[in-house]
Design brief:
mainly beta, 10 strands, 3-stranded antiparallel β-sheet, elongated
Length: 141
């Protein structure tokens, strides 16, 4: 299948430019069914485990991977049904300490990946979707 099952989008809550002012960056991550059929997505598992996030320093290209949470593996089989075009949202937080690993003048790209076993009809398969956000310092320091 060439067309992805889901589309992933992310934005910084109440911070459209994703400016880092020394406080947490709250992420709203949307997962949308882009198929013409109903799909099953393990929403509760993904909400608890979280996304895979890689932070990449835009100046030095240094990288770090952020930790997710442990989640009950049983939740992987608990599917939330998504109609065509329907989306669900998960929330995540990137802490100031995670961002300051690259120094005080933060300029990073957050690569956000969602991986899950999903259902399409009677078939199950692995899904992986990626989106990116630029997190930059505020100009006034």
């Amino acid at each position: 299948m060439t067309k992805p099952l889901f589309e992933i989008r992310a934005e910084c809550r109440e911070n459209p430019k994703c400016l880092f002012d020394g406080r947490e960056i709250f992420l709203d991550i949307a997962i949308q069914n882009v198929q013409k059929t109903e799909l099953g997505f393990p929403l509760e598992y993904v909400q608890k485990a979280g996304p895979f996030i890689k932070l990449i320093d835009n100046r030095t290209k240094a990288q770090t991977h952020l930790r997710g949470n442990l989640a009950d593996p049983e939740l992987r089989s608990k599917m939330t049904r998504l109609s065509p075009g329907e989306s669900v949202q998960i929330e995540w937080v990137i802490t100031p300490e995670e961002l300051r690993r690259f120094g005080s003048d933060v300029d990073v790209t957050a690569e956000i990946t969602i991986r899950a076993q999903v259902q399409a009809g009677s078939e199950a398969g692995e899904f992986s979707g990626v989106t990116r956000l630029h997190i930059a310092p505020t100009k006034a320091r």
